[in-house]
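Morning F.,

Quick status update on the modeling queue. The single chain you submitted on Monday has been processed. Sequence for confirmation:
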Amino acid sequence: MKDRNGPRKAIYDTDMGSGVLKNEIDDGYGLLLCLALDNWREIDLLGVTVVMGNTYLKECVACTLKTLEMTGRIDIPVYQGAAAPLTRDYFRGDPLTESREPYGGYATIEAQKQHAADFIIDQVIKNPGGITLIPVGPLTNIAMAIEKRPEIAPKIKEIVAMGGEFNAGIIPGGFNWWVDPEAARIVCRSGIPLTIVPLDVTLNTAITIEMLDSIEQTELVAWLKIISEPFMLKGKVSRLPNTKATHLHDPLAVAVFADPTIALETSELFVDTITEGLWAGVTIGRKTGFGWTILARENNIDLKKATVVWEHDISKYQDLWLRAIQSFGQ
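Structure tokens below.
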């Protein structure tokens, strides 16, 4: 969805593991959707910033570059960011992937020399009020940018983030924000307009091999099937109990940014992230904030509101990402 000034400018911030077999695949599908939207002139994808998360930073970068090469979009710049959380040790999502290369080998293109946080800072200063950040991993890169140059916060148009968990029963909370709770807290308290696409809604997303079989069988689709199938399990997606499937968490944030009507139910909550103890990384939210805001004021905490997505249009979302994938064969 364009605005009256043309395609909306966006930066995709990812902990890409897609391409390394048996790692999370949804980051890659999120990037594919960004690239398709850029091809359609719905958005202007300024670059991809990479953070550790699903695996080590170097593997995340390698997978990002491979995906760009597979789609022929080697013009999109990639920026390496944080290799560890702000204040704590990195607990990698998949300890088996440290030395494994993306399926099909490493890309022939390389990442830019500039740090991801500095790229974000430069783009926000260059385009005040015009940049949407779409983080789908730990929020470390964005938090680093805010910490380094606090004055950019009011100049960021919005953040549409896949992360957090409110009532989905995931302990100790969503992986993305659990990896770096301090970064999540900085973003939640930044005052930047924030839309959260949490596990509460993304656990209802799904991808199956049958879905990929339903579109034109291009070289890209064949590659996606190879890297996706090992991550699909029967019963993994509760609404498809007898089907081998997995979730497409991250692309939903991109889809909600591209077409807000995909979000069928939302609410405005005062939000924060716990940073200590067994519940570190857990996202908390309240509608009214009464009582909670009193405690916050007594502790010199300036609580901010976020828009939280609770329900999405399943068929519209599926149609969008399938159309995006198919577009690369045309």
